[in-house]
Amino acid sequence: MVPDYLAKFCPGDNVVPVVANAENLPFEAEFDLITSTDVVEHVLNISALLYSLNKALKPGGRLAIRVPYREDLLKYAPQTGYPYDLVHLRTFDRSSLRDLLAEAGFRVSQSYFDGFNFQYPARHVMSVFNAFGILSGKQKRKLWKRLYSMLPPESIPWRFRRAVYRPIEIIMVARKVATVPLPSP
To answer: What CA–CA distance (Å, rounded) separates 133 from 38?
Structure first.
């Protein structure tokens, strides 16, 4: 049974919504492209998910995947007052996601950052502040807030945002280059 909120996004006969467990998709070599946005960080068994995605793609099919980039998972601890039970179970960086995809039979063709935390500068920007050695942590934060107020993020060109602000997500596009075999008994 497809929830109403999903069905309204699938008008016509060309789109058939399916509700399925992402770790055990009911498809085999059916798709040229699969996108996964805000999913991988929530699944319990990432190996089962990647196996399932590989199996669902046709040979040479593509996978576009978006996941959190170097996220602080401590903020999800109930002890910190986080009110929700369903949280991110993992976070990724470029090499860890690339390695996972390679192990699952994919070759990454594109990788880029998406979404930026405008309240925090990129790590290399902070290293410039640190190089002066004369500013305390509080002074650096105050200077950043002042710069931030003078140049609101929406006024900064997108490519420059990537260089200055800390990314929130990483996106990778990969091609299926191998079918992951079932282990022998």
So the answer is: 39
Prediction pTM value = 0.73
Residue at 17 is within a domain: no
What does the pLDDT read at residue 32? 95
DSSP per-residue codes, 154-183? GGS-HHHHHHHEEEEEEEEEEEE-SPPPPP
Q: Could you tell me the pLDDT band of residue 93, with boundaries at 50, 70 and 90?
A: very high
Write out the two tokens for 173.
């596009």
Determine, yes or no, domain membership for 185: no
Q: Determine the structural domain holding residue 127 and report its residue range.
A: 26-176
Residues 125-145 have a mean pLDDT of 64
Q: Is 32 part of a structural domain of the chain? A: yes
Do residues 171 and 114 lie in contact, with contact meaning Cβ atoms separated by under 8 Å? yes
CA–CA distance, 127 with 131 (Å, rounded to integer): 6
